[in-house]
Prior knowledge:
This protein has one helix at about 5-15; strands at about 30-35, 40-45, 50, 55-60, 60-65, 70-75, 80-85, 90-95, 95-100, 105-110, 120, 125, 130-135, 140-145, 150-155, 165-170, 175, 180, 200-210, 220-225, 230, 245-250, 260, 260-265, 270-280, 285-290, 295-300, 300-305, 325, 330-335, 345-350, 355, 370, 380, 400-405. It is mainly beta and about 425 residues long.
Amino acid sequence: MKPKRLLGLLxxxxxxxxxxxxxxxxxxxxxxxxxxxxxxQEVSVDSVxxxxxxxxxxxxxxxxxxxxxxxxxxxxxxxxxxxxxLLDGCTLTVTQDVTVGSADAGLLxxxxxxxxxxxxxxxxxxxxxxxxxxxxxxxxxxxxxxSAPNGKVYIRWSVPANSVTAASYGADVxxxxxxxxxxxxxxxxxxxxxxxxxxxxxPAYQVSFDAGEGxxxxxxxxxxxxxxxYPLPACTFTPPENMxxxxxxxxxxxxxxxxxxxxxxxxxxxxxxxxxxxAQPEPPEGVSWVLEDGVLKVNGTGAMEDYGRGGxxxxxxxxxxxxxxxxxxxxxxxxxxxxxxxxIRSVSIQGSGVRVGSRAFSYCSGLSSVxxxxxxxxxxxxxxxxxxxxxxxxxxxxxxxxxxxxxFELCGLGG
Length: 415
């Protein structure tokens, strides 16, 4: 069992010794509620000592409560475990220092109630003789330092209203739950307490990211607990081969429920794992063609290849081709592309600013119609582009295109 977990159970046991009914206070209260290491707890009133104002207080093992505004000069935890409960709306002001372990190894554990507004104001807080300090909630404010040169200080929060401020922190301070600098998303890191010295730290949620079957790293995110809505980020992990990012899931959610959009955080630490799906294949580069039922369709992006006489891949099947459709993203009809395809009767050009190569439709003796799509246009006609298209009687489709030599020679309208 981890030392901090064992220590938490010890604290709960010490406070739980007095859960039996006890004499009530004047207002009928029989117990004080507080937020313990493992959640809500209660301690009976006759098992605690109420702190009152005074010069210097020395406390030994036991449970103490601050149920009003109290001011003292100094506070010393001489030995043993001292549990201090700060009731909501109450402030304990120590004008000088709080020391732990002045006589022997000790432990000071500070707790708050559900509202989290109980306050401890001090100058310095220090532990010695291998002593430890646990801040489990409340509003903690030290005008000087928080340290434990021969021990450890653990700082954690129970509710969003908690906060901690100190002019400096010793190297022995451990932020046991996430905090951020007030008004920002900048975290308080145990490895660099100097970066948050003198700044108010407020509770936060930490979000970590797991690449799953992918690779790479993504930095942790910190979200103030007072505003727990977290817009999920884009995944920057490298996905497995032939896969792409699909969605996030929360580690620990056995149902594997995808999360998207904005996530409402509830726990100190949330880890999101990336899930992937098979990637859709990339469309082929360049242009492609298919011949079905006499219609040759040329689609894709960019320019068709330029051919020599009879070099087009469909030339051997030219007798089957009765019409041609040039797709909207094809920018150039290659030289000799449809040379001597005498069975072609019609051509449809869907793209804008299409260049028609030299001899592209020469000797298409049966071609009688060239149509443009809704946004189709031709920018140039190469030399002899429609040479010897005897049945082509209308060349208005060329519009304002640059027309090469003999582009319409021996057509129905003459050259």
